[in-house]
Amino acid sequence: VDLIGTTETIKSLSEDTLLDIARYFDLGQNEILLANPNVDRWLPQKGSEVLLPTRYILPRAERKGVVLNLPEMRLYYFHSVGEENQPMVTTYPVSIGRMDWNTPLGTARIEKKDMNPVWRPPESLKLEALAAGDPLPDIVFPGPDNPLGNYALRLSIPGYLIHSTNKPYGVGMRVTHGCVRMYPEDIEELFPIIPVRTMVQIVNQPIKVGWQNKTLFLEVHPLMDEEQAQNEDMTCMAYEMILTAIEDEAAILDIKTIKKALQEQNGIPVPITIFVSEGFEF
């Protein structure tokens, strides 16, 4: 199985912002905005239909430990094995490093788990804050002003963490200095069940394809800002992945849906094949 979750549509209440809805349904800010381009993020009209993009194609990676896909700003945690020997997976929205403070790609491990962590700002960050006229202390103790929140998972990549935040409205955006932020309630759920030494795979996959019930699905996210010049290459990339996935399967491609997904780049998986049964004649 390559897909998890389902999409659904709800109607907003008068007091809801899109960001309130996103957090309630465990979505990031960019996710819900891309899925609802015609809904005002701050003042959606009462009764507005809001699409919840809560269906996901699993990234191309070993289905073990943590997989973090940067373009979709989403973390997948593969844990206990369930029925038919399939790994159970939980997914969470995250914030990642902004363009000048990239979250690094590659494979790492969780080296340490810290509850109520102490934050020691690195010199580079202290210099940036000083230049902005907002100097940072040498050490920030646990409490509401600590940007690490109440939980931190320290990676084997020096200086990088997966942690909570005291600014949850930024989850699902590129706003960090390279670390990975989670909603406080999400990392509170993850922290006690994830072991030290868990593998963390950090990947860059704006395009994902996956099978479900003999149907191939396509999911497209915007490229990272620093890669936008390569946007024209996305069509070639998508078709290469699609043709590799199909191999010898008897299936007809839905070209119109593929083009629309590549144009909208809204992160919603769409079916792109029509399965041809045995004996079908063109």
Structural summary, described in words:
- The C terminus is likely disordered.
- With 282 residues, this protein is an alpha+beta fold.
- Helix content is 19%, strand content 31%.
- The chain has an 8-stranded mixed β-barrel with strand order 5-6-7-12-10-9-8-13.
- Helix 1 packs across helix 2.
Summarize the SSE layout with pairings.
Layout: E1 3-5, E2 8-11, H1 18-24, H2 29-35, E3 49-52, E4 55-57, E5 65-69, E6 74-81, E7 87-97, E8 106-115, H3 123-131, E9 151-155, E10 161-163, E11 174-176, E12 180-182, H4 184-190, E13 199-203, E14 207-212, E15 215-220, H5 234-246, E16 251-253, H6 255-264, E17 270-271, E18 273-275
Describe this structure in a few short sentences.
19% of the residues lie in helices and 31% in strands. It has helices at 18-24, 29-35, 123-131, 184-190, 234-246, 255-264, and strands at residues 3-5, 8-11, 49-52, 55-57, 65-69, 74-81, 87-97, 106-115, 151-155, 161-163, 174-176, 180-182, 199-203, 207-212, 215-220, 251-253, 270-271, 273-275.
Which percent band covers the strand fraction?
25-35%
Q: Helix/strand/pairing class, anyone? A: alpha+beta
- In terms of quaternary structure, the protein is single chain
Biggest sheet strand line-up: 5-6-7-12-10-9-8-13
| Number of H/I helices | 6
Nearest-integer average pLDDT: 91
